[in-house]
Structure formats: C-alpha cells, structure tokens
Design goal:
disordered N terminus, 2 domains, 6 helices, four-stranded antiparallel β-sheet, Immunity protein 35 domain-containing protein, 212 residues, alpha+beta
Length: 212
C-alpha cells in the first residue's frame, strides 16, 4: 500500500520516483534472500529511469559497486520495473530493456537509419559482452569477446562479435579453445543478442569475409 504523499493523474494515485525506488529496493532484498552476494540498487541518476507506466532501476552486488571488479558482478535481468499506479515490481529481461530503453542510452551517440534509432558498434559490443557474461555464468570456462577489430563485423541489420575463453585470449594456446557457435549477433535496432552458427554466418552474407 502506498504512503499518503502520492501524485495524482487522471483520478489515479501515482507513486513518485522516490517511492518507486523504495519499492524496488524492498523487492530486490526479498528476491535475493539467501544469495551469496548482497544486491542493492545503483545509486546514480543515470541508472534510474521512467518510461510509459513504469519506473526502472538497475542493481548489482555491493562488492561490484564498491570495487568495479567484474568478478563480483551479478548477471541476469538488467533492471527492475515498478508500475506507477499499482506499485507492482518485476524483473525486466534484456530484450525488453533494449526495446524500452528506459535510460535513453540509445540516444547517446545513436545513428539514424531509415527513421529508426539504431545502436552503434560500440553500444552493440557492450550488449554482446553483457549477453556472453550472463549466458556463460555456469560454464566451466570464463569467456569474453575478442578485442581485435577483425573479430567485429557489421552486415545488414546485425553486428557480429567473436568470443573465446579468457585463457585462450591471454595465451592463444589452442588447448584453451572453446568450441561452439563462433560469434554473437546483435540486432542494430532491438539490441537482441543471440549465438550465430557457421551456417547462419554464411546465410547472412559472410560478414567476416571468411569465404571470400
């Protein structure tokens, strides 16, 4: 139940950003009880947003926010949404987060293509890095994107990024190679990330020019 100090809009009670933030913090505490790492909301204005009928807040572990060390980062839904009228809190998946763009991150250095907002290569690379960290959380080998430009490509509506195990990236020793889909694609409008097979790469027009 909301406190008495609510905003009103068209006859409905509306929670403020501050009230929604408290609800999100309570939701996060309840959802992470028993977790190995304490999670809190990120206390930065750039990590709090409002879009449509919801407020949005990002979170991470206390250790990560204090040190910036990726070893302590939490991977999963990137944000929590709080409905302005009902106060309902829920996790926001990466696909919805990219589509809604509650923090207007796409407006920072966006490109315009055929009337649509599109991600830059740099923004797509950040999405791909977050995707591979989240998906590989339970893998035996830690993986990361290649830094070299020859492992990054753009073709049609997609960006492509190669990845490998961290041990391979640091040593280039084939015994540390991770086998599977060779890269990740990121849609330049929706930000959707997925693994891409060799067959998909050929069908996409050979973005890396491997077969030319």
């Amino acid at each position: 139940m909301f406190p008495a100090s609510l905003q009103t809009h068209e006859g409905e009670l509306m929670c403020t950003l501050e009230q929604a933030e408290r609800l999100a913090a309570d939701f996060l505490r309840q959802e992470t009880v028993g977790s190995d790492r304490e999670a809190v909301l990120v206390d930065k204005e750039s990590c709090k947003g409002e879009k449509g009928d919801s407020f949005y807040f990002t979170y991470n572990s206390v250790e990560y926010l204090a040190t910036g060390d990726d070893r302590h980062a939490l991977y999963g839904p990137p944000a929590i949404a709080v409905h302005k009228t009902t106060g309902e809190c829920r996790w926001v998946g990466m696909q919805e987060f990219s589509a809604v763009d509650p923090f207007n991150r796409a407006l920072q250095g966006i490109q315009i293509g055929q009337g649509e907002l599109t991600y830059t290569m740099e923004q797509a690379e950040l999405l791909a890095a977050e995707f591979i960290r989240r998906v590989s959380a339970g893998w035996d080998n830690e993986v990361a994107l290649f830094e070299e430009d020859r492992h990054k490509a753009a073709k049609g509506d997609f960006f492509y990024f190669g990845y490998q195990s961290v041990k391979y990236l640091s040593t280039r020793d084939d015994k540390y190679l991770v086998y599977g889909p060779p890269c990740i694609s990121v849609h330049n409008v929706t930000g959707e990330c997925r693994f891409v097979s060799m067959q998909d790469l050929q069908a996409a027009g050979d973005p890396y020019n491997w077969w030319h």
